[in-house]
Structure formats: C-alpha cells, structure tokens
C-alpha cells in the first residue's frame, strides 16, 4: 500500500454540499462546505426537494474548489469516499451519483460511508493521538446515539433516541417560542441570558439501566407550559424557557454518557454531531469529565456540523481495513450505525 493516500470525500446527506481532500485520513488539505441554511430558513426547516436541487447546482463547483484549495487534481486522488446514508434520499443520490461517476472515470476505489459514523471520525481529525476504545455521544438534528467504539469500524450501540432526536427537539421548541431556523444555535445563545432553573422541565431517563433517550415528553412539557401561560395571561420569558429546556436536555445527555463510560470502564469520552457545538453542553461535559477524571474530546465547531472531512476520514480507515464498495452502491436513507454495504456478486 502507498505510504500516502489521498482521499476525495463527498457529503450531501441533508442541506450541506461538502467536498474534502485528505491525506492519510487525518490531515485535511481542504474541506469546503456550501450551506443551504439561508435558503431553508423561509420554510422553517429543510425541504428535501429544494435541498436535492441545490446539491445538483453546487456539487461540481464545490469539487473544483476543494481540489484547487488542496493544490491537487483528479489524477492525484487514490480513493473516493461518499455518504450513502442515513439522510434525505434525493440529497444522498446527488453525492452518490457524482462519486460513482468519478470513481468509474478515474478507475479509483469507492467507499460508502455511514453519515453517523462520519461524525465520530471528526474527532480523529482533531485529535491525532485518539485511538479506540472510547464512548461516543453522537447528537444532531436527526440522530442521538450513545456508542461504544471498540475499534475502527466496530461499534456497539448502547442507546439511541426512541422518538425525537435532541437537535429536532431544539428546532421544535425554538419554533414554539417564536424563533427561527435552525433552532439549536438560537436557543443556545438565548439561554446565556436566561435562568436555567426558572422552570422545572422533566428529565426523562426511561426504565432503570436504559441508555436510550426520549425527548418528546420534554418537548410536550414545554408546549404545555407555553399554552397554559398564555391561557392564564402569565408573561413568558423566552430566555428562561430556552435556558430551562436546554438544561433539561443537557442533564440527560451528560448523565447517560457518564454512566456508559463508567460501565464500560473507558477513560475517554468523545462527543460529535451538530448539537456538540452547543456551548452549554460542552461546558457541562467538561465539568463532569474533570470531576470523574475522564479525558474529553470535542471536535471544533467546523467539524461538528455536516462536512466531508469526517466522511473522508472514515472512508480512509474502511479502505485500509479492506472495505470498498462498487457501482451498485445505493442510497439507504435509514441506514443504521454498524451496517456495511456488501458488494453485489456475480451480477451479469
């Protein structure tokens, strides 16, 4: 195997068109992200058809920009990584079609990457000495997973959301109190001037010993509080609602992650995903990690949200471990963590 492997990675699972170039998996030569947030704000959320069309418009330009910034061309690429799930099926297909066309024309291997897995690998980019095993909390708009990573590509899912993902709950509560989209950053900012103890919103821990999550009850509690206050003519402090809601989410996320780390006797905790950018969550994790003597690793904000660098890192480790896909690789919108694409054999 070559001493230096250059990966071209594509990510288009939702509303970011991203392309990255990496050297040996962990060195990012370029990581270009074209965001559609401003486009979807007017709708109060991501519109799948609009997202897909925008990916088609953007992806060629983003590829060119990523190669130019890396000071490389197509002939320098060794492998191509691409997200094939989970995500919006139309959006995924844009990245997949492009990646397969490049792999076919350049005669390069293609590696399909699980988007959730990619979020974990964002930490390998930031922390060059990070190695499994560790406990990882992946928390984003569409996913909330608590994972024991035994080795590269080998996971045990310890818990996941049974209803709303944490980021989804943030968006819904933000909408309920009259804020815009995306709700997570707006609530985080508003919480800084609110009282997190003003309203006693519930913390849902489910049955004894469970590491699963549930945020629909908390969301309903916030909605009930708002409706009851309006009916009774009680003034509503958006700042206090935001701070109290956010703290309820944080308490559950941190408590369950700490429980998992102690149970599996690891010394390292990793957090990943868009909600990992939340300043309150990061602060509470640092406090609890120090108290319990865990090493905490959190990616920079640029690697928390969807990006192709994390996909390229995951693709590199899959490749060196002998995993590649083929031209039959297809989008799987409900792909589960740990599932791998199996090549289609003897197809005529």
UniProtKB/TrEMBL annotation:
Cofactor(s) required for function per UniProt: Fe(2+)
Main localization, broad class: cytoplasm
Localization per Swiss-Prot or TrEMBL: Cytoplasm
Residues involved in substrate binding: 138-142, 171, 184, 188, 278
Gene Ontology BP, a term: tRNA threonylcarbamoyladenosine modification
EC numbers for this chain: 2.3.1.234
Record keywords, A-Z: Acyltransferase, Cytoplasm, Iron, Metal-binding, Transferase, tRNA processing
Stretches assigned to the Gcp-like domain: 27-312
Residue sites binding Fe cation per the record: 115, 119, 306
One Gene Ontology cellular component: cytoplasm
Superkingdom as given in the UniProt entry: Bacteria
CDD domains for the chain: ASKHA_NBD_TsaD_bac
Cofactor note: Binds 1 Fe(2+) ion per subunit.
MF term (GO), any: iron ion binding
UniProt cross-references to InterPro entries, sorted A to Z: ATPase_NBD (IPR043129), Gcp-like_dom (IPR000905), KAE1/TsaD (IPR017861), Peptidase_M22_CS (IPR017860), TsaD (IPR022450)
Catalytic activity: L-threonylcarbamoyladenylate + adenosine(37) in tRNA = N(6)-L-threonylcarbamoyladenosine(37) in tRNA + AMP + H(+)
Keyword Translocase in record: no
Pfam families reported for this sequence: TsaD
HAMAP family for the chain: TsaD
Role this protein plays: Required for the formation of a threonylcarbamoyl group on adenosine at position 37 (t(6)A37) in tRNAs that read codons beginning with adenine. Is involved in the transfer of the threonylcarbamoyl moiety of threonylcarbamoyl-AMP (TC-AMP) to the N6 group of A37, together with TsaE and TsaB. TsaD likely plays a direct catalytic role in this reaction.
Family statement: Belongs to the KAE1 / TsaD family.
Name of protein: tRNA N6-adenosine threonylcarbamoyltransferase
Organism listed in the record: Maledivibacter halophilus
């Amino acid at each position: 195997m070559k001493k230096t492997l250059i990966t071209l990675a594509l990510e288009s699972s939702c509303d970011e068109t991203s392309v990255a170039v990496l050297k040996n998996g962990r060195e990012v030569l370029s990581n270009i992200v074209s965001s559609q947030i401003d486009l979807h704000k007017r709708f109060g959320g991501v519109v799948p058809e609009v997202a897909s069309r925008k990916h088609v418009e953007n992806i060629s330009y983003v590829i060119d920009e990523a190669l130019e910034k890396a000071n490389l061309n197509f002939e320098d690429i060794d492998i191509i990584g691409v997200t094939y799930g989970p995500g919006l099926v139309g959006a995924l297909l844009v990245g997949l079609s492009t990646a397969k066309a490049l792999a076919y024309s350049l005669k390069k291997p293609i590696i399909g990457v699980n988007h959730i897995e990619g979020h974990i690998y964002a930490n390998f980019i930031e922390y060059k000495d990070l190695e499994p095993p560790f406990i990882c909390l992946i928390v984003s708009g569409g996913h909330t997973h608590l994972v024991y990573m035994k080795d590269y590509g080998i996971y045990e899912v310890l818990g996941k959301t049974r209803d709303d993902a944490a980021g989804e709950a943030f968006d819904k509560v933000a909408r309920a109190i009259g804020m815009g989209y995306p709700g997570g950053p707006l609530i985080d900012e508003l919480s800084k001037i609110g009282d997190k103890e003003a309203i006693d919103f519930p913390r849902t821990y489910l049955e004894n010993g469970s590491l699963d999550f549930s945020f629909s009850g908390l969301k309903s509690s916030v909605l009930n509080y708002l409706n009851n206050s309006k009916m009774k003519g009680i003034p509503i402090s958006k700042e206090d609602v935001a701070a109290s809601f956010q703290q309820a989410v944080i308490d559950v996320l941190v408590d369950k992650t700490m429980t998992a780390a102690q149970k599996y006797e690891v010394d390292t905790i990793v957090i990943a995903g868009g909600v990992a950018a939340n300043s309150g969550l990061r602060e509470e994790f640092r406090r609890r990690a120090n108290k319990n003597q865990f090493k905490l690793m959190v990616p920079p904000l640029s690697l928390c949200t969807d990006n192709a660098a994390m996909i390229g890192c995951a693709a590199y480790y899959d490749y060196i471990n002998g995993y590649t896909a083929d031209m039959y690789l297809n989008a799987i919108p409900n792909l589960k963590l740990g599932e791998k694409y199996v090549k289609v054999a003897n197809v005529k």
